[in-house]
Amino acid sequence: MAETTGITIRRPDDWHLHLRDGDMLRAVLPFTARQFARAIVMPNLAPPVTTAAAAEAYRQRIADALPPGASFTPLMTCYLTDDADADEIVDGHAAGIFTAVKLYPAGATTNSANGVTDMDNVLGVLERIQEAGIPLLVHGETTDPDVDIFHREAVFIDRTLAPLLERFPGLKVVFEHITTSDAVDFVLAAGDTLAATVTAHHLMINRNALFEGGLNPHMYCLPVAKREPHRLALRKAVVSGVAKFFLGTDSAPHALSAKEAACGCAGIFSAPSAVEHYAQVFDEEGALDQFEAFASLNGPMFYGLAANDETITLKKTGGSVPGDVSVEGGVAVKPFLAGQPLTWALVD
Ligand code: DOR
Ligand code: ZN
């Protein structure tokens, strides 16, 4: 069979993205808007986005930061806290401001201190979210410090996610940025109310990348990359054609100085070449025919939205990931695999 050298698919969406704010937002947003029509924007700002008014103001700042002529729609989320107000969430959703609600177990990751400390504190709110058909997006890691960091996702499934789905059988849940074969198996076995996003980096690296030739802070994110068999299970899942898996980069920029530090922040800034990275994975798996479903169809279907009408074209002409991106104020941020060769290029 002749090698595929080009592919045109419906324009994709990024179902999990950190855009930050201010100068960082202005620096990183053009990369996402170049590739994606829409993105689910994470609410873990400081302070977190917990009200419809805050989300509306943030949406406006994102719109103001778009390059001229860009067509990109941010889909806003509400950060769930122990004392969340169900009316605020349900009304904000009805008003078209909130697309989804984000659950961070308190302390699980960056800016999650205001997250949920005990699921019992939000049962009433979850009841209302279920009733209103609002998707709950879950950072699926236990915060129990006694649990090994590489097992936190698997333990979260047993202790929190499985009981959650049992208690709320109608709740639409996205298990975000899954990293393990345990998660893949769980999603496959669950009903249609559960879906999962998969990042490009978790499809491309295993945990060795963190330590190759020395400590590599730019390969550190949460959930942390796992062993090779887990990466292979993720690759198998995304090319399987199962509609429960869709694209979510979890691109999470941090200033270079905050990454290359004694206590470096978690987050991989994959936005600059995200769609090219995913295309490479599907190509390597001999599954380019499944790429459009994963990148552009499964996500909208789960969220009850229409797929995008426009298309994008990628060609196997090669290219390279940009080097450090500068941010106003003298800060820089390093892309995932900065400066390294790409096999695919987004040409149109
Ligand atoms: O690596 C991560 N970075 N994981 C998260 O869950 C949050 C994100 C961030 O906001 O930096
Ligand atoms: Zn994230």
User: What Rg do the Cα atoms give?
Assistant: 19 Å
Fraction of helical residues: 25-40%
The set of bound ligands, ions and cofactors reads: (4S)-2,6-dioxohexahydropyrimidine-4-carboxylic acid, zinc ion
Strand residue percentage: 15-25%
Cα separation of the termini: 26 Å
Plain-language structure description:
- With 348 residues, the chain is of the alpha/beta class.
- It has one domain (6-347): Metal-dependent hydrolases (TIM Barrel), CATH 3.20.20.140.
- It has 11 helices and 15 strands.
- It has helices at 22-35, 52-65, 86-94, 123-132, 152-167, 181-189, 200-204, 228-239, 256-259, 274-284, 291-303; strands spanning 6-10, 14-17, 38-41, 73-79, 98-103, 136-138, 173-175, 194-198, 245-247, 311-315, 319-320, 325-327, 331-333, 341-342, 345-346.
- The chain has an 8-stranded parallel beta sheet. Strands 1-10-15 form a 3-stranded antiparallel beta sheet, with helices on one face.
- The radius of gyration is 19 Å and the shape is globular.
- 48% of the residues are buried.
- The structure holds (4S)-2,6-dioxohexahydropyrimidine-4-carboxylic acid and zinc ion (ZN).
- (4S)-2,6-dioxohexahydropyrimidine-4-carboxylic acid (DOR) binds at residues 18, 44, 109-110, 139, 221-222, 252, 266-267.
